[in-house]
Specification:
The structure holds three protein chains of three kinds. By secondary structure, chain A is an all-alpha fold. Chain A is built from eleven helices and one strand, in the order βααααααααααα. In chain C, strands 5-4-15-14-13-6-7 form a seven-stranded mixed β-sheet, with helices on one face. A six-stranded mixed beta barrel of chain C has the order 20-24-21-23-22-27. Chain C has a four-stranded parallel β-sheet with strand order 10-9-8-12. The chains are: A mainly alpha, B alpha+beta, C alpha/beta. Chains in contact: A-B, A-C, B-C. At the B-C interface, helix 1, strand 2 and strand 3 of B face helix 1, strand 3, helix 7, helix 8 and helix 23 of C.
């Protein structure tokens, strides 16, 4: 059965032939690190807002300690480095900060990323590491002022949740705004990336927190996030399959097309289902908590970003004429 | 308010690629990258066939997603003629505009910024036609102000059936093909 | 939305253009950045050399660097618009694979190992060898092969040397049969540019002619005009070409059977009385005998031969008659197909005669040229022996020299030995059929000199290679054109050659001086030569340097406008029946002979042109190579599917003599008959110097090892080879 139309084009621009291929590893890595940081900001922000305090004298990866905020600082900086590496016209990067473009999610992102830093720093100052206090004793009055006010803790936590959600969601909107790539045309992409980021950070905190009750709590939370994530993935596919032929064809990239194996094995099985089962067994005390599930969740989160970015660039509107 | 666009007569077009070569020499586009290109669509079964040839380029859309997604404003709508242009000193090379274009009309210049057809605005401002329109040996390409009812392009659109590429993408392209 | 003020944009444009120029395609080629000259724009008129149409152009230099080439609006040929090759002409100047200095062969022929020498050394060497050949074998033993206007000074030199042997492949490998067929009928050849009034045709019939892919500028422009005016186009072609896609009637004809179709059409016109009776009565000779001869060739007879249904043949014949005399049955251009090509062309001429289109508007006009006297040279020495290409007038109706005849004489040594070849601007390895014979001939030579812009395959076999400057870097012979509007055009340098390349006139002159032929080059500079000729026509070099082209107003070109019908045939009329053909033992009215079929399971190899390339000479042009870097082999999609082949697969073609091509990309398409394959000519280069084109695509010419020689005029029919396809692992 041969196609009724033979379509030949002389356009062979390397960036768009045979399909869009402008974003390599840098963007998925940033999306992962950004999502991870967003999750940290939401979870730790929630802990702060709820009034939790670090029971230990030193910095840890407990939700109420500053360890996660410090990690977030490192992760988001690495993420921004990846973004910077992706730019083609690097010397002009400062142009991002001369303007706000209300219709450009990338512009929102530039400013959100800027906002992330003061929020993370604020979170760190609420429970600063002793090494930092030894180095910068001038901070002590500020830290004592802040530490005395629960309202400041509360507000920081709230702002951290808001900025974290913005950070987690905007990248999904950035992709879904690019209507020329039908795989990304779904309002679920934003929530999916946010939930994946929450899951990644919950998985890490589950693994790294020194507080036993918190570990269990985070395992339950991670399972919740994983379940929601699975549901969102399902709805994403259903939404695409039931929209236009262009969207259905895009979905088929993951359902029989070239990205099928890496998606179902890497993202769904290894990244969601397997850790969900392991962690469910752990929280019901049938097996002990191990780092295995968290590592799988994090790998799955990375795989999700790679597949979405690559398959999305592969998808396109069919030429009807 | 002038809206510059093109009307191309596919009946006369033979797909010779003169428009592609003229654009390349006029604008010195980088090796392997083109601001315009030809598509050939062959339909049917031998010998009952049809061949539609189209010279395509950036459509300088009325609703350009490449402009709305640009985080710095480098990609913008020129006030005169509503041509879509890129100010390369403002471009950071994020490539969102490449991803947003349903026509894959843009490329990344080796110097790092996004680039594409400019409707030869440097020629148009001197009163000339874009290079592709000026060179076309079959005289199938017409250029002008779509908003001027007396312009050749407006009169052609009013008198002959025509279509644009991927109108369902919703970007309201301004390059039309007479049938 | 953010937007930019106009003033600022213009500033950006200026800077942008400068940056773009530096980073762009051409400026980034190593070693070819021209010295920063005066700033600003300089426009120089000249005429193009990317093909043989010679459109008048205006080259623009910006800040000392060649920028672009556009059409000259005063040009009657291009009307201000060049074809894609001409538009890409700057690439010829910037081509990194150009020949740069004179070369002497340093090992065995064909190994492509060279020693770079000075012009003086190279020309002294050539002169020495030519004089040696002259002493041993006579000056007639030197032959010149040339193609294009740039060969005229070399032709002058070869005649001054005393040789009558000078040929262009365009006769026996291309237009020859067509010109002979029309000469036999109307007494005049078609020539180039063709005297076809396509623009005004109301019905245009194309037999295998693929206007739009064949990019002769004026022809394509007028084709578009005819389409725009609603002309009825009828196309007979085994391939669904671009021209076929514009046709009202597309006839998917079996290859090699066009003559049967033409005879059937004529049969219908005569039988149904649809031909132009008054015209035939007034100008025709032998019509009754002709009508009797074609009586049996009915549409029913033609159907099994051609595959075209009788009703279609009748319908299209009536369509042609409906619009006569503005019905143009196009004579085509490359006509060397099956060996019966002169007779097929004669049949086209006869069909036009029946329709009354010769000399009429919408048919064939009477071209004119301006009178520009030649330079007064002393008479050429009379050769002691006749030309070697057509001994005993074996091909009695050949009106020009037969390149393959010279080649044959070189191999056999009969009627006399040919020991030296000078080859200008034609890649004989790809131009002549059966390259094995060409190589055999070369091995029999004492001297092979190749003068060209790029080092193509023929240069690889040479003893001496002389680099020519491109048309953008040189003066050349005037173009005094024979056309609807007569004109004179000047070619003049726009930029300096980037290395040690020289113009053809300089090479021809310096060589002549070394051969002791000063008498034939009394002028010292080319400007002197050109100005002398132009002054004789009431013009001046200075004026032409400004304008590039001077055209005369269009004279009367149709009988309707007062042109007097005149036919230089024996009967002084249009010869429907040719007594001179009969007397030489040929069919006085064309007869169809079925072409030989190929081996079972094979496909007939057909070839043609792409609008962005010229033969095998432009594949290293950096601008044009970007437009098309390789060719493809077209195979019917159903056939491909059955063979398990898909578009994009790499295949090799093997012909009936076991010659195997380079790997080439497959194009599985509905747009071609199942019994043939098609490729664009000029690719599959093997010359090491053509780095950009080396190994890209496959050479159809390499697979043309069989050819059918036209008995009337020696043309080499090349569509007689068959291939099978093998997938490349």
């Amino acid at each position: 059965m041969h196609p009724l139309t033979e379509l030949v084009s002389t356009a062979h621009s390397p960036a768009t032939d045979p399909h869009l291929n402008v974003w390599g590893w840098e963007i998925p890595v940033y999306l992962f690190l950004g999502g991870f940081t967003a999750g940290i900001m939401v979870l730790s922000g929630w802990a702060l807002w709820k009034g939790r305090r670090n029971p230990r004298p030193h910095t840890t990866f407990a939700l109420a300690s500053s360890g996660l905020f410090i990690l977030g600082l490192i992760l988001i900086s690495l993420g921004m480095l990846a973004l910077f590496l992706d730019l083609g016209h690097k010397p002009y990067v400062w142009r991002l900060y001369l303007t706000i473009k209300p219709w450009s999610p990338m512009s929102w992102g530039a400013w959100i990323l800027l906002l992330v830093y003061p929020v993370l720093v604020a979170g760190i100052l609420l429970d600063p590491p002793r090494a930092l206090m030894r180095r910068l004793p001038s901070l002590r009055p500020l830290v004592e002022w802040v530490g005395a006010r629960a309202a400041v803790r509360h507000a920081t936590g709230f702002v951290s949740i808001v900025v974290g959600v913005a950070l987690g969601i905007y990248t999904g909107i950035l992709l879904s705004a690019l209507g020329a790539r039908p795989l990304w045309s779904s309002a679920l992409l934003g929530p999916l990336f946010l939930v994946s980021g929450l899951s990644t950070s919950a998985a890490f905190a589950h693994w790294a927190s020194p507080e036993p009750e918190e570990r269990v709590e985070l395992a339950w939370l991670d399972n919740l996030f994983l379940t929601i994530e699975l549901g969102l993935v399902g709805m994403l596919l259903i939404g695409l399959l039931t929209a236009t032929e262009a969207h259905a064809e895009a979905a088929r990239l993951l359902l029989g097309g070239p990205y099928t194996a890496v998606f179902w094995v890497g993202v769904v099985f290894v990244g969601i289902l397997l850790p969900l089962v392991i962690q469910s067994l752990a929280v019901t005390h049938r097996i002990i908590h191990t780092p295995i599930a968290p590592v799988l969740v994090m790998l799955g989160g990375l795989a999700l970003r790679f597949v979405i970015v690559a398959a999305g660039q592969h998808s396109h509107w069919p030429r009807l004429s | 308010m002038a809206r510059l666009g093109m009307v191309i007569d596919t009946r006369r077009c033979v797909g010779c690629m003169d428009c592609v070569v003229a654009c390349k020499t006029e604008n010195q586009t980088p090796e392997g990258m083109n601001r315009d290109w030809i598509t050939y669509a062959t339909k049917g079964r031998y010998p009952r066939l049809s061949l539609t040839i189209q010279s395509e380029r950036c459509n300088h859309c009325d609703e350009p997603p490449c402009v709305s997604c640009c985080p710095t404003g480098a990609s913008h709508v020129h006030d005169w003629g509503r041509v879509v242009l890129v100010t390369k000193e403002e471009c950071i090379g994020c490539k969102a505009c490449l991803a947003s274009c349903p026509y894959d009309a843009r490329y990344v210049h080796p110097d790092g910024y996004a680039d594409k057809c400019t409707l030869c605005i440097h020629r148009v401002e001197q009163g000339q036609d874009p290079a592709c329109v000026s060179v076309c040996p079959t005289r199938c390409m017409h250029f002008g102000d779509l908003d001027d009812p007396e312009s050749e392009v407006a009169r052609l659109l009013a008198s002959r059936t025509h279509h644009a590429v991927l109108p369902e993408a919703g970007t309201r392209p301004r390059i039309f093909y007479l049938e | 939305m953010n937007h930019v003020s106009r003033r600022r944009f213009l500033k950006i444009t200026g800077a942008g253009a400068g940056v773009a120029a530096a980073a762009g395609t051409l400026g980034s080629l190593p070693g070819l950045r021209a010295a920063k000259g005066p700033s600003g724009i300089r426009r120089v008129p000249t005429f193009c050399d990317l093909c043989f149409w010679k459109c008048n152009a205006i080259a623009t230099v910006r800040d000392g660097v060649l920028w672009k080439v556009e059409g000259n609006p005063d040009d009657p040929l291009s009307r201000g618009r060049l074809c894609p090759r001409g538009t890409g002409g700057v690439g010829a100047h910037f081509d990194a694979d150009r020949l740069r200095a004179p070369l002497l062969r340093a090992s065995v022929r064909g190994e492509e190992k060279w020693t770079e020498v000075t012009w003086d050394q190279a020309l002294a060497h050539v002169a020495e060898k030519l004089l040696k050949i002259k002493a041993e074998y006579g000056p007639e033993a030197v032959a010149l092969f040339s193609h294009g206007v740039g060969g005229s000074f070399l032709r002058h030199s070869i005649k001054a040397f005393g040789s009558p042997n000078s040929a262009a492949p365009s006769f026996a490998q291309c237009r020859g049969p067509r010109d002979v067929g029309f000469e036999l009928t109307f007494g005049e050849p078609i020539g180039s540019p063709e005297r076809t009034d396509i623009r005004n045709a109301r019905c245009l019939v194309l037999i295998g002619s693929h206007l739009g892919e064949n990019m002769h500028n004026t022809q394509v422009q007028e084709f578009a005009d005819a389409i725009g005016s609603g002309a009825s186009v009828i196309v007979a072609d085994p391939r669904f070409s671009v021209a076929a896609s514009k046709a009202k009637h597309y006839l998917p004809i079996k290859p090699g059977t066009d003559l049967a179709l033409l005879l059937a059409w004529m049969n219908v016109l005569v039988r149904e009385g649809l031909y132009d009776r008054e015209y035939v009565a007034a100008h025709g000779f032998g019509f009754e005998a002709f009508a009797a001869e074609i009586q049996p060739f009915t549409p029913e007879w033609a159907w099994p031969e051609t595959g075209i249904e009788p009703e279609t043949i009748r319908e299209t014949a009536r369509e042609m008659a409906r619009y006569r005399p503005a019905t143009l049955v196009h004579p085509g251009r490359h006509a060397t197909w099956y060996g019966d090509d002169a007779q097929r062309s004669r049949a086209i001429a006869l069909l036009n005669a029946l329709l009354g289109s010769w000399g009429r508007k919408g048919g064939f006009y009477q071209p004119a040229s301006m009178r520009v006297p030649g330079y007064p040279y002393p008479p050429y020495p009379k050769p002691t022996r006749g030309a070697v290409d057509n001994p005993g007038e074996r091909y009695p109706f050949a009106s020009e020299a037969i390149t393959t005849g010279i080649r044959e004489a070189t191999i056999t040594g009969k009627p006399y030995p040919v020991k030296g070849w000078m080859v200008y601007a034609t890649n004989l390895i790809q131009a002549l059929p059966d390259e094995r014979e060409t190589i055999k001939a070369i091995q029999a030579l004492d001297l092979l000199v190749v003068i060209d812009v790029v080092g193509s395959e023929i240069a690889g076999w040479a003893d001496v290679v002389l680099p020519e400057a491109t048309y953008l870097e040189r003066y050349d012979e005037l173009n005094v054109e024979l056309f609807r509007e007569p004109f004179v055009a000047l070619r003049q340098p726009v930029v300096e050659p980037p290395a040690d390349q020289k113009p053809n006139w300089w090479i021809a002159r310096e060589l002549a001086l070394k051969l002791g032929l000063e008498a034939y080059y009394p002028w010292k500079t080319i400007e002197e030569y050109l100005d002398h000729r132009l002054q004789g026509a009431g013009m001046s070099l200075a004026a032409l340097q400004q304008r590039g082209v001077v055209a005369a107003p269009r004279p009367a070109v149709y009988y309707e406008e007062g042109v007097v019908p005149a036919f230089s045939t024996p009967s002084k009329k249009i010869e429907f029946y040719s007594v001179q053909l009969r007397d030489k033992g040929f069919d006085p009215v064309p007869r169809f002979k079925r072409p030989a079929a190929g081996p079972a399971g094979s496909f007939r190899l057909l070839f043609g042109r792409a609008p962005v390339h010229t033969f095998s000479r432009t594949q290293t042009n950096p601008v044009l190579a970007q437009a098309m870097s390789e060719n493809e082999v077209w195979l019917n999609a159903d056939v491909a599917e059955r063979a398990g082949l898909r578009t994009g697969d790499r295949v090799r073609l093997r012909n009936q003599d076991g010659v195997v091509s380079n790997p080439v990309r497959l194009k599985a398409t509905q747009a071609i008959r199942p019994d043939c394959v098609y490729m664009v000519h000029g690719f599959g280069h093997t010359a090491k110097g053509l780095r950009r084109a080396l190994g890209k695509g496959a050479s159809d010419a390499q697979l043309v090892t069989r050819y059918a020689t036209d008995p009337l005029m020696g043309g080499t029919g090349m569509n007689v080879n068959f291939v099978t396809l093998e997938r490349e692992a």
